[in-house]
Amino acid sequence: MQRVLSGVRPTGGIHLGNYLGAIRNWVAMQHQAQESLFCIVDMHALTTLEGTDDLAENTYTIAAAYLAAGIDPAKASIFAQSHVPAHTELAWLFSCLTPLGWLNRMTQFKEKAGKHKEMACLGLYAYPVLMAADILLYKATHVPVGEDQKQHLELARDIAGAFNRRFGEGLLPIPEPMILGAATRVMSLRDGSSKMSKSDISEYSRIELMDSADTIALKIRKAKTDMEPLPEKFSDLEGRPEAQNLVNIFATLAEITPDAVCQQFVGSNFAPFKQQLADLMVATIVPIGEQMRQYLADKATLHATLQAGARRANELAHLHMNDIRRAIGMIQ
Ligand code: TYM
Question: What's phi and psi for 289, nearest 5 deg?
């Protein structure tokens, strides 16, 4: 039985990294799995949000992106995390069996808290425990994510193991991370050593799913590269992170291997490669952006999709929380 769960934080624009690293893989998986749940993790967004003004709009935007990318609400539940209160209930139960030592190892907390660790909020520190609850609440077996979520997934597996050892073997499945394809870590277009992210101050560092064709072409033209021609094999791009990144993106969009991309452009400089990359990207991303705009113009329908998704998610959550409370020994 394959049960798939994943999510995106509604903290602003949604970009090519989110799409190639995660959502695109969900679209294929929804057809194979018995149950698929795709969450918009608004409670997670609160850990870094300064104002909450845009939270609802951002949540709708992510829902629109899921739909536009090809998630079918007849096959998968699309819902907002805050519409299923059991996420936070289970997070509390897990927080009572998660050693602080495990959380102290989390690199994302260190990155996001920066120098002012003492000022960071408890929610940011506890973030991975809530993420484990998102997954295990539905007894999810497969979690398709980008590479940056690997450490969080390992923690979710450790928490599931600790829970089972304490309250009964086999109660929670150990979830499998699914880190798929050649674009598991899409890098910034301005700096091949840092990840493409929503929080980068430079808009030229990322392609947003609602960017126009002109903007995409411009961002690709301006993307940082080097002076060397493209080699015959991907492995010969060692030490050229910007080129590696663009070749991986090309390969994923064209559904060919990175080696095949190199063979196609061997000996050439980046100009013709970038031209084709921009064309490929426009052909994939622009229709998604256009559909997102259409979904966003009809909030009532989007809202109804989120409600239907939350209904199914709450049903499953209710069943599983009963098992969990019983196992812990709480009065039913
Ligand atoms: P978030 O919102 O940062 O990103 C959503 C998904 O996009 C992937 N991703 C990337 N993949 C490749 N290259 C990139 N540059 C890139 N940037 C982002 C992420 O790996 C992720 O799969 N903690 C999660 C959200 C979350 C979650 C969950 C995920 C909360 N609960 C339960 C799975 C299961 C996050 O912050 O993702």
Answer: -60, -40
Q: Which residues are catalytic?
A: 112, 195, 198
| Ligand 1 neighbours (beta carbon < 6 A) | 5-9, 17-18, 21-22, 41, 44, 131, 134-135, 143, 145-146, 148-149, 152, 184-186, 195-196
- For 66, counting Cβ atoms within 10 Å of its Cβ (0-12 exposed, 13-18 middle, 19+ buried), the class is buried
What pTM, to 2 d.p., does this model score?
0.97
Residue 185 within any structural domain of the chain? no
- pLDDT per position as a tens digit, 105-161: 999 999 999 888 899 999 999 999 999 999 999 999 999 999 999 999 999 999 999
Query: Could you list the residue range(s) of the whole structural domain that residue 31 is in?
Result: 3-178+299-328
Read off the CATH number of the domain in which 251 is found: 1.10.240.10
Q: How many residues in the chain?
A: 332
Query: How many domains does the chain divide into?
Result: 2
Residues 166 and 280 in one domain: no
Q: For ligand 1, what atom is nearest to the CA of residue 140?
A: 34
- Report the pLDDT value the prediction gives residue 116, as an integer from 0 to 100: 86
